[in-house]
Amino acid sequence: MVKKIFKIIRWVFALAFISSILMVVAYRFIPVYFTPLMIGRCFEQIGKGETIKLYHHWISLDEMPKSMPVAVMASEDQRFLTHHGFDYQAIEQAAEEHLKKGKKLRGGSTISQQTAKNVFLWQGRSWLRKGLEVYFTFLIETLWGKQRIMEVYLNSIEMGDGIYGVQACAEQNFGMEAMQLNRRDCALIAATLPNPRRFSSKNPGPYMLKRVKQIEHQMTFIPAFPEEH
C-alpha cells in the first residue's frame, strides 16, 4: 500500500514537472491572454458585487514605443539585461539595510520574477509560492530570453483597476494606441507599477509627478532595449 502511494506521488510530481515545462514552452510562442491574477481580480470584483472590469489587448513588443521597456527597467529592475532572473546585488543591499539600519525588508523582485508570478502563479505569500516563483523564473530565463520576458511582462502586468498591459492602459488612460505613447507617458505608466490600483497614470498626483521626473532621469542611464535576434 505504501509503495503504491509513493508511486502515485512520483507520477503526480513527474506530470506536474512535464506540464510546467510544456506550458512555459507554449507561452514562448503564443500570446498570454489570461493570467491567474486577472482571474483572481475578476472573482474579487464579483465578491464585492461589482461589474467585472477586464481590459487586456495583446500586442507584440514591436508595437510598443521603444521608451516603454526602458521606463520599466528604470523603475523596476535596472539590471534586467545583465542578471539571470535574480538581482543578487539588490537582495544583498536590502538585507544589509534591514540588518544594519532596521529598514523594512524589501522584496526586490525582478521583472523576470514578476512575470513568472503573474503568468503562472496565484497571488499571496507562502514558501511554496516563493519556491515555485524561483522555479518558473529559472525556466523563463532559460527558455524565453529577455525579449520574450519583457513582451509578456508588458502585456500582462496590472496597470490599473482591471487594466492589464500597455495597450489596454494606453486605450483606457490615454485615449490612444500604445505606439503613440511618448517618453513621459511611458515613465508615468512605470511610476504606477509598485501599486497600480492606488496610483493612477490617468490622474497623477504630486507624488506621481515627482516619480515621473525621477524615472525619466534614470532612463538616461538605461541602454535601449535590444532587438530580438
UniProtKB/TrEMBL annotation:
An annotated Gene Ontology molecular function: pentosyltransferase activity
GO cellular component, one term: plasma membrane
Glycosyl transferase family domain sequence ranges: 54-219
Membrane topology category: Single-pass membrane protein
Presence of the UniProt keyword Nucleotide-binding in the record: no
InterPro entries: Glyco_trans_51, Lysozyme-like_dom_sf, PBP_transglycosylase, Pep_trsgly
Top EC category: transferase
A biological-process GO annotation: cell wall organization
Catalytic reaction(s) noted: [GlcNAc-(1->4)-Mur2Ac(oyl-L-Ala-gamma-D-Glu-L-Lys-D-Ala-D-Ala)](n)-di-trans,octa-cis-undecaprenyl diphosphate + beta-D-GlcNAc-(1->4)-Mur2Ac(oyl-L-Ala-gamma-D-Glu-L-Lys-D-Ala-D-Ala)-di-trans,octa-cis-undecaprenyl diphosphate = [GlcNAc-(1->4)-Mur2Ac(oyl-L-Ala-gamma-D-Glu-L-Lys-D-Ala-D-Ala)](n+1)-di-trans,octa-cis-undecaprenyl diphosphate + di-trans,octa-cis-undecaprenyl diphosphate + H(+)
TM ranges: 12-34
Signal peptide segment: none
Cell inner membrane as UniProt keyword: yes
Pathway, per record: Cell wall biogenesis; peptidoglycan biosynthesis
Family: Belongs to the glycosyltransferase 51 family.
HAMAP family associated with the record: PGT_MtgA (MF_00766)
Cited function: Peptidoglycan polymerase that catalyzes glycan chain elongation from lipid-linked precursors.
Protein name: Biosynthetic peptidoglycan transglycosylase
Origin organism lineage: Bacteria, Pseudomonadati, Bacteroidota, Bacteroidia, Bacteroidales
This protein's encoding gene: mtgA
